[in-house]
Amino acid sequence: MLTYNPIDINELVDIQNIIIDSSLPAEEKKKSYLQQIKNPNCFRCGDIIVRVSFSNTGVTFEDRIKQYLLSGQGMELVIS
Questions:
Q1: Is the distance from CB of 51 to CB of 4 less than 8 angstroms?
Q2: For 50, which DSSP code?
Q3: Please, are residues 16 and 44 in contact by the beta-carbon 8 Å criterion?
Q4: CB atoms inside a 10 Å sphere around CB 43
Q5: What is the pLDDT of residues 7-45, one digit of tens each?
Q6: 12: which of 44, 68, 73, 79 fits an S-S bond (Cβ 3.0–4.6 Å)?
Q7: How far, in Å, CA of 29 to CA of 25, rounded?
């Protein structure tokens, strides 16, 4: 079981405030994101703290994302 230390939400970077220059090459976009987010494993999205952790299951992150998206969870249809 994972345990986490308490975190002050006000000390975390809000991912909604990150701006990436789309004209940059991919490597520079990654660098810019990492510089701005400071800690890609713990940040906030508005009033929600997001903590990212991985377990050693042999399943890749990409596989988990595909599984999540194909399950229909977290998806929202926006028609404009």
A1: yes
A2: E
A3: no
A4: 20
A5: 899 999 999 999 999 999 999 999 999 999 999 989 999
A6: 44
A7: 6
